[in-house]
Write the structure tokens for this entry.
Amino acid sequence: YGVDINSSFSELLNRIITFPNIEKINIEEINIQWLVKDYEKLKSVLINPKFNQLWLAIQSGSEKILKLMNRPVLEAPEITAIKLSNLKKGAPHLIYKGQFIVGFPGESLEDVELSLTHIVDSKFDEVNLFKFDPKPDTRANNMIDQVKDEEIDRRIKYMTSKLKKYNIKILTNN
């Protein structure tokens, strides 16, 4: 938000919190790149108790998979995880949610482990594990190294079992 008008997402949020009739604000499915680009300013805005939830569309803890998804990688996922953990320390009232895609073409078991590490290190309260669902006429649908449905289901079960140890609420679409 706001790049085209010389503004920023944090400026928008700063204006929204001044509205007297707004009691709770949920930020849903924001692309992680906007948090990374405006981190320091967002950190100072999100401490406001009007903010209830921050849901980040991270998609993967693997730089390789993010590049295959054609997602901007502004910093290493490990650095992003540290920032998210620090953000949570500064705004513990927020419910932190992460969204990850499981089974994107080319995803290895090592990539799954990187996503698990990212989730745990980021200190998410809740994680949505979305099964990769190829759409017709997309680049991802035609990529080699498609992960079979049964394997995606197995990976989601594996990730769910690992994350339960950390009291992270898990939602899936399978």
Notes: The longest strand covers residues 51-59. The chain has a mean pLDDT of 90. Residues 131 and 174 are 6 Å apart (CA to CA).
